[in-house]
């Protein structure tokens, strides 16, 4: 199978689109007619541009409102098709998409449509052109691929075949296994798109909210399994109408598209081992066993401030790197690294972003296999010179300019803290607060980058996504979605900011890019943790008393329990599975903060209902520090 993407899927003019598509690794391109019409080159010149990029024109589309027209419109449609065929020959395209008719004057009838397609096939045959017929989900008479196939079958012409599109099938909840009965040689082209599971007008849904396979909620894998079962070995192409993509980076969106196709084909190959799927061999999605470390890049002054905050949180300096200005801070199973070394990646990260989380280490079963899968999906390997006493730890470039390192238990990597660090020594300068592990990492990015982050994590790691929720900031909306594994040892919240006036948007603009905005530490007893934090001089974020009045109204809490929450600044949530407790530090720098959480029972969420009250309190804290309100 070959890969392609429609020019409508990405931003830019036609030249920019072709460059991005070729660089991402696609074999071909669907030329969307409007992209050609808006371009100032002849069909012949456009065709040559495509070939100069090492691409082929996989499809020219769309040709609308063709079949079943009354006279005199029918004669005009054939004349219009004749002109398009001339254009295609000059361009070097040999397949055109005919989408099912939506015209209010169209006439129904399977046989009438089949006769029209047969006649068009005869016209196309003489020019070496093939006709692909597609059922639009909102077609006036034909909106189901089964009906479209019956028309193609009755047309009975070698140059007339079927085009299948995931959105048009799955949006109407048509069972994809019905595709298995269609002969593979009569499927001329396959278009792929995912989408969030919305209940809205099909045309509007299609034109604005499609996304890459793996980014939405449709059963694209089931669709692709059915396609593979037919023996189809033609082009797999992405046709994505998405407002975010139209305003995004052409290169980034094209890379996402290619990654999504590889990810999809790898999934199909694993559930249909008897079907040959031409995708590079790669290890399975990686099972993450936990977060091994989080590394901050800082200078000496800001490292001191960060160390003071960690001390108040009950962390102890546990180690000093054997050859670099790098400290290890530890509590429970949490390892925090502070890197102030004047050379290397961390220093570059500090110069670009100020104090920030530059590196995350994940515990995996096989670090080498993790890197191999990531590289197969387009991730870049990260390497830097290994100094005295250091291990070569497998790593990749992550998103937002950060790095992901991988630690496994089957090699010397499991002894990284003993090998690379010497004990700090001395008495503990703080009281441990009962923090046990990292509950979740919260990463903030511009909203239009959010799907890129989602696909990156889901394609490499064995994770699922939760439904997107809206977080209300007084200055605007922030969209939040979680990537997590089955046992909760890896939880990453993705927070997409739509404007810089929100707390999340301020963090991005002032930190010069996306990144980790907060770390949430788990405790088994948050009230005992609060007592230890008080002993360490920790001052929590101050929550409005009005919040607790509303909390009592919502949940009907016992007065003593409510007062304990209020006096400690703890936020509370509850669902039918369990309870959730949250305590926040004040903000550090331009919006970074720590969170402490306790989960009781089977609570799986993240306290989304409390987010707006937390944000309001953080903004009050900003104003108290003299930072202008956002």
Automatic annotation (TrEMBL):
Keyword Oxidoreductase carried by entry: yes
EC number: 4.2.1.118
GO molecular function: 3-dehydroshikimate dehydratase activity; dioxygenase activity; isomerase activity; metal ion binding
Domain VOC: 290-409, 437-586
Recorded catalytic activity of this chain's protein: 3-dehydroshikimate = 3,4-dihydroxybenzoate + H2O
Residues noted as binding a divalent metal cation in the record, renumbered to the chain: 134, 165, 191, 239
Associated pathway: Aromatic compound metabolism; 3,4-dihydroxybenzoate biosynthesis
UniProt keyword terms in alphabetical order: Dioxygenase, Isomerase, Lyase, Metal-binding, Oxidoreductase
Superkingdom of the source species: Bacteria
Biological processes annotated in GO: 3,4-dihydroxybenzoate biosynthetic process
Pfam families noted in UniProt: AP_endonuc_2, Glyoxalase, Glyoxalase_5
Cofactors required: a divalent metal cation
HAMAP family: DSD
Function: Catalyzes the conversion of 3-dehydroshikimate to protocatechuate (3,4-dihydroxybenzoate), a common intermediate of quinate and shikimate degradation pathways.
PANTHER family: HYDROXYPYRUVATE ISOMERASE, XYLOSE ISOMERASE-LIKE TIM BARREL DOMAIN-CONTAINING PROTEIN
Family listed: Belongs to the bacterial two-domain DSD family.
Protein name as catalogued: 3-dehydroshikimate dehydratase
Annotated organism of origin: Roseibium aggregatum
């Amino acid at each position: 199978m070959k890969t392609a993407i429609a020019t409508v899927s990405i931003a830019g003019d036609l030249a920019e689109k072709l460059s991005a598509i070729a660089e991402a690794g696609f074999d071909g391109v669907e030329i969307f007619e409007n992209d050609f019409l808006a371009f100032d080159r002849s069909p012949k010149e456009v065709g040559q541009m495509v070939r100069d990029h090492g691409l082929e024109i996989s499809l020219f589309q769309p040709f609308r409102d063709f079949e079943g027209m009354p006279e005199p419109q029918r004669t005009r449609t054939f004349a219009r098709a004749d002109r398009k065929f001339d254009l295609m020959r000059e361009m070097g395209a040999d397949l055109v998409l005919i989408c099912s008719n939506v015209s209010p004057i169209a006439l129904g009838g399977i046989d009438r449509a089949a006769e029209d397609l047969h006649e068009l096939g005869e016209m196309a045959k003489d020019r070496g052109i093939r006709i692909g017929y597609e059922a639009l989900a909102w077609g006036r008479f034909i909106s189901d691929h089964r009906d479209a196939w019956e028309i193609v079958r009755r047309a009975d012409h070698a140059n007339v075949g079927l085009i299948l599109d995931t959105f048009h099938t799955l949006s109407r909840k048509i069972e994809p296994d019905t595709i298995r009965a269609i002969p593979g040689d009569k499927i001329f082209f396959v278009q792929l798109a995912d989408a969030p599971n919305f209940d809205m007008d099909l045309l509007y849904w299609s034109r604005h909210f499609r996304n890459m396979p793996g980014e939405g909620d449709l059963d694209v894998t089931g669709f692709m399994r059915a396609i593979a079962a037919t023996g189809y070995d033609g082009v797999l192409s992405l046709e994505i109408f998405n407002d975010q993509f139209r305003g995004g980076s052409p290169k980034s969106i094209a890379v996402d598209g290619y990654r999504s196709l590889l990810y999809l084909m790898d999934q199909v190959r694993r559930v249909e081992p008897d079907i040959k799927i031409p995708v590079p061999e790669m290890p399975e999605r990686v099972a993450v066993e936990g977060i091994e470390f989080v590394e901050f890049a800082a200078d000496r002054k800001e490292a001191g401030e960060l160390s003071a905050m960690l001390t108040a949180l009950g962390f102890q300096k546990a180690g000093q790197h054997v050859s670099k200005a790098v400290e290890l801070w530890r509590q429970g199973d949490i390892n925090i690294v502070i890197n102030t070394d004047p050379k290397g990646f961390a220093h570059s990260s500090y110069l670009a972003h100020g104090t920030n989380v530059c590196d995350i280490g994940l515990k995996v079963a096989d670090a080498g296999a993790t890197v191999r899968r990531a590289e197969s999906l387009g991730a870049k390997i990260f390497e830097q010179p290994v100094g005295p006493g250091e291990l070569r730890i497998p790593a990749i470039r992550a998103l937002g300019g950060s790095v992901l390192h991988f630690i496994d238990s089957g090699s010397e990597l499991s002894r990284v803290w003993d090998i690379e660090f010497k004990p700090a020594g001395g008495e503990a300068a703080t009281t441990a607060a009962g923090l046990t592990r990292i509950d979740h990492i919260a990463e903030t990015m511009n909203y239009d980058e959010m799907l890129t982050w989602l696909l990156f994590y889901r394609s490499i790691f064995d994770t699922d996504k939760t439904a997107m929720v809206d977080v209300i900031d007084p200055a605007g909306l922030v969209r939040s979605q979680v990537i997590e594994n089955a046992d909760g040892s890896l939880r990453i919240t993705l927070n997409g900011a739509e404007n810089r006036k929100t707390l999340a948007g301020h963090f991005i603009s002032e930190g010069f890019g996306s990144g980790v905005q907060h770390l949430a530490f788990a405790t088994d007893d948050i009230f005992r943790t609060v007592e230890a934090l008080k002993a360490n001089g920790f001052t929590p974020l101050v929550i409005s008393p009005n919040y607790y009045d509303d909390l009592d109204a919502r949940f009907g809490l016992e007065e003593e329990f409510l007062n304990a929450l209020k006096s400690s600044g703890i936020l509370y949530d509850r669902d039918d599975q369990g309870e959730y407790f949250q305590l926040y530090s004040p903000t550090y720098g331009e919006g970074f903060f720590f969170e402490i959480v306790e989960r009781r029972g089977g609570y799986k969420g993240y306290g989304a209902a409390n987010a707006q009250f937390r944000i309001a309190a953080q903004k009050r804290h900003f104003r108290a520090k003299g930072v202008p309100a956002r």
